[in-house]
Design goal:
Length: 649
DNA sequence: GCCGCGTCCGTTTTT
DNA sequence: CGGACGCGGC
C-alpha cells in the first residue's frame, strides 16, 4: 500500500491536513489570521473531488464575491478545467461556490416557483429599499424627520434576518409604541411595493430560502441531495437565518465544514451573531474541532502586536494565540500628523520611499469619508491607486441604465419608470406620470400624451429586443434608444466620464452573453444588485488599474499586503464613537483593529491626525487608545519625542 | 415641467 | 463640507 501523500497534501502542516482529511461529519476549524484557511478550504474541496465526490455535489459559501471567484479559479486550475465566460457559480462542473446571497438567489430561482416567487425577480439594494420606505412614509403621512427611513429599514432588516415575519412583528410590537407601529405600517407598504415590482431585498434572499426549505420537505430533500458537502467560510459572521439555512441544507449527513475566527467577528451590526459558532458542537453533535494557530503571513513583530491587541478582549477564547516562525522583521511605525491632509501626504511620501511594489501596499481607514484626503494626496504625488468602495452602482447614470433595463423586463416597476422617464429628461414629470398611474390618461394634454406614447414605444421596442439579444448588445441598445447617449455626449467632459461608466456596465453584462434574451439580462441585473463595490473584479476598468489599494478595514478582511497603513487612529474615529449608546461595542472595534493589523505581512504603519475635520469644522483629537495596547518595544517613532505624547502613559 | 437656490442633515462599517 | 430634497420662479 502506498502511504506517501499527494503533493497538495504535503504542503500542509499537520493540523491543516487533519482538516482537509476529515471528510465526513461536522467539522469546525478555528483559524487565526494568516493561518492558511483559504488553502485548507480549497485543498479540501480539491481533495474531495480527487476522492471521487462529484464536484457539483460540493457547495462552498464564501463571504464575498471576490473570495468566491478566487476559490473557483484556483480549483479550476487544480482540476485543469478551463472556465469560459459563464459566470454562474456552479458552471463547468465545478463546485457551487458563492456568497450566501448568491446561494439564496440560486435556490429561489431554481425552486422558488412553488412559493410563488417569480422566475425573474430583481434585487433591491439599500437605496432602492430606502426609497420604497420613504414612499411608504409619504403614503402614511408620516414625517421622515420624525423617524428616518434608514432607521425603519434597519428595524425591518433586523426582524427579517432574525426570521421574524410581518404578522409576527405586528403581534409582538404592533402596540408597543408609536415607533414600532410606524415600522409595522411601513413594513406592510414596503412588502406591497416589493411584490408589485417583483423585487426581493437582501434579507429576502436568505429568509425566503429558509422558509422554502422549512415548509417544503420535497425541496429540502432535493437540495440536500444536490449538495452533499457543505463548506462555510467566515462562519463567525453568519446571521441567525444563515445559520438556519446551513442547518436545513446539511440535513442528516451533516457533512458540514465551517471555518471561523471569533476574533475577526466584525459584522454584528449587520445582524451577524457568533452564537452560531459558539453553539456549533451542540447543534451538530460529534463535531470535530481543529484549531489553526500558526501564522504564515506576518513577521513576529506584527503577530506579537496582534496578540497583544486582541487579548485585551474579554469575550473570546483565551487559549487561542497566534504563533509564527517568521523572522522578527521591522518595528511598527507610528506617526502623528498635524491634520488629515498632512497625514495623507505623509502616507503618500512613505509609499513612494518604500521599495514594495505598489500592488503590495494598502491604505486602510475606518470610514469611507477618510478616503478623500488620501485620494487627493496620491493624485498629487502621482502615485497610482485603486479606490475600493466608491459606490459605482450608486452612480446616477449607472442606476439610470439599470432602471431602464429593469423597466423593460418588467413594465410594472413604478420606481424604475419614474427614473427612466427622467433620464434623459423628456418633458414628462411627476404630474403626468401620476395621471398615468392613476389611469387618468384622458386628462393628459395632447402634447404630453405624444411624449408619453413615444416613451412607451421605446420601452416596448426594447422589450422586443430583450427577447433575443445578448445582454451586452441589449444594454448598448438601451443606452442608444433611451437617448442617454446623445444627452451625455452633449454634456462635454463630465458626460464622457459618465458614458465610460455606462459602457463599463456593458462589459459586465457581456459575461452573460452566452445566455441571450431575458434570462441573461435578468441574470446580469441580479448580478449587479449583488455585486460589491468593494470588489474591483466586479468592475472591469477598476480591475485593470494597478497601484496602491485604498479601502476600509471591513473591505480588507481576508486580504494581505506587504505594507499596510492603518490611518486615523484617533479616539472617536477608531475606535469609532457611535451615536447610539446601546450599539457601542468596544470589543468589536478592537477586533476590527486586529483585522487591520493582521493584514500586514512585513511592514505595519499606524498614523493619526492631531486635528480632524468633521462636517467641515476642525476638532482636536486624542490618539486612539488602541495605540497603547501595543508594547513600546515593538514600536518605533519617527521622532523620539512623539512617543510619550502619543502614548500618554 | 425644469432648474436653481436654500436648507438641513449626516458618518460608521456592507452582502 | 457636500449631497439630497423641497420650494418657488420661469
Amino acid at each position: 500500500m502506498d502511504n506517501s501523500l499527494p503533493p497538495y497534501l504535503e504542503r500542509l502542516n499537520d493540523r491543516q491536513r487533519e482538516a482537509v482529511l476529515a471528510i465526513n461529519g461536522p467539522v469546525s476549524v478555528l483559524a487565526g489570521a494568516g493561518s492558511g484557511k483559504t488553502a485548507v478550504l480549497t485543498t479540501r474541496t480539491y481533495h474531495l473531488i480527487r476522492k471521487g465526490i462529484p464536484a457539483e455535489k460540493i457547495l462552498a459559501v464564501t463571504f464575498t464575491n471576490k473570495a468566491a471567484r478566487e476559490m473557483r479559479e484556483r480549483i479550476a486550475r487544480m482540476l485543469d478545467v478551463h472556465e469560459g465566460r459563464d459566470r454562474r457559480p456552479g458552471a463547468y462542473g465545478l463546485p457551487f461556490i458563492a456568497t450566501f446571497h448568491g446561494l439564496g438567489r440560486e435556490l429561489l430561482e431554481t425552486y422558488g416557483s412553488i412559493m410563488g416567487i417569480p422566475r425573474h425577480f430583481c434585487v433591491y439594494d439599500r437605496d432602492d429599499s430606502k426609497s420604497a420606505i420613504r414612499k411608504a412614509l409619504k403614503e402614511l403621512e408620516v414625517d421622515p424627520k420624525e423617524i428616518s427611513p434608514a432607521a425603519i429599514l434597519a428595524r425591518i432588516s433586523k426582524a427579517k434576518s432574525e426570521g421574524m415575519t410581518l404578522p409576527e412583528f405586528r403581534e409582538k410590537f404592533g402596540r408597543e409604541s408609536f415607533r414600532t407601529r410606524i415600522v409595522a405600517e411601513a413594513w406592510t407598504k414596503y412588502e406591497e411595493t416589493l411584490k408589485k415590482e417583483k423585487a426581493l431585498d437582501f434579507d429576502d434572499l436568505i429568509m425566503l430560502p429558509v422558509r422554502l426549505l422549512e415548509r417544503h420537505e420535497d425541496v429540502r430533500e432535493l437540495v440536500q441531495k444536490r449538495f452533499t458537502y457543505l463548506h462555510i467560510d467566515e462562519y463567525q459572521d453568519t446571521s441567525v437565518l444563515q445559520g438556519r439555512l446551513v442547518q436545513l441544507m446539511a440535513g442528516e449527513k451533516q457533512n458540514l465544514f465551517v471555518v471561523a475566527d471569533v476574533d475577526q467577528a466584525i459584522y454584528t451590526w449587520r445582524n451577524a451573531t457568533i452564537e452560531n459558532l459558539l453553539s456549533f458542537s451542540e447543534t451538530y453533535p460529534g463535531t470535530k474541532t481543529i484549531i489553526l494557530e500558526h501564522n504564515y503571513r506576518s513577521t513576529k513583530t506584527i503577530v506579537e502586536a496582534a496578540n497583544q491587541i486582541i487579548q485585551i478582549n474579554q469575550n473570546r477564547n483565551k487559549d487561542k494565540r497566534s504563533v509564527t516562525n517568521n523572522p522578527d522583521g521591522e518595528r511598527i511605525t507610528i506617526h502623528a500628523a498635524g491634520n488629515a491632509e498632512e497625514e495623507a501626504s505623509w502616507v503618500a511620501r512613505e509609499v513612494s520611499r518604500s521599495s514594495f511594489p505598489l500592488e503590495e501596499v494598502a491604505i486602510l481607514y475606518r470610514t469611507n469619508a477618510q478616503s478623500r484626503a488620501l485620494e487627493e494626496a496620491f493624485l498629487h504625488a502621482q502615485i497610482p491607486y485603486r479606490l475600493l468602495g466608491t459606490r459605482f452602482f450608486d452612480r446616477k447614470e449607472v442606476k439610470d441604465v439599470l432602471a431602464w433595463a429593469r423597466l423593460v423586463l418588467e413594465p410594472d416597476r413604478e420606481a424604475d419608470r419614474i427614473r427612466a422617464v427622467q433620464s434623459p429628461s423628456r418633458g414628462i414629470g411627476k404630474v403626468t406620470l401620476g395621471k398615468i398611474t392613476a389611469g387618468r390618461i384622458e386628462e393628459l394634454r395632447p402634447s404630453d400624451r405624444a411624449k408619453v406614447e413615444s416613451f412607451e414605444k421605446v420601452v416596448r421596442e426594447l422589450g422586443d429586443a430583450a427577447e433575443t439579444l445578448p445582454p451586452s448588445a441589449f444594454l448598448k441598445l438601451v443606452i442608444e434608444k433611451s437617448g442617454m447617449e446623445t444627452a451625455l455626449l452633449k454634456e462635454g467632459e463630465e458626460g464622457q466620464d459618465r458614458l465610460e461608466n455606462i459602457k463599463e456596465l456593458g462589459a459586465l453584462a457581456s459575461r452573460h452573453d452566452e445566455t441571450p434574451g431575458r434570462d441573461g439580462i435578468s441574470a446580469f441585473l441580479a448580478d449587479s444588485a449583488l455585486a460589491s463595490d468593494q470588489d474591483e473584479m466586479d468592475r472591469p476598468l477598476e480591475a485593470k488599474k494597478k497601484g496602491v489599494t485604498l479601502m476600509t478595514v471591513h473591505a480588507a478582511k481576508g486580504l494581505e499586503f506587504d505594507m499596510v497603513f492603518v490611518t486615523g487612529l484617533e479616539e472617536g474615529l477608531f475606535p469609532h464613537e457611535n451615536m447610539a449608546e446601546e450599539e457601542r461595542d468596544e470589543e468589536e472595534e478592537r477586533r476590527l483593529f486586529y483585522v487591520a493589523v493582521t493584514r500586514a505581512k512585513k511592514r505595519l504603519v499606524l498614523t493619526l491626525a492631531r486635528i480632524r475635520r468633521v462636517y467641515g469644522t476642525d476638532f482636536f483629537s486624542e490618539p486612539s487608545q488602541f495605540l497603547r495596547d501595543i508594547d513600546p518595544s515593538l514600536v518605533s517613532f519617527l521622532e523620539a519625542d512623539e512617543y510619550e505624547d502619543v502614548i500618554q502613559i
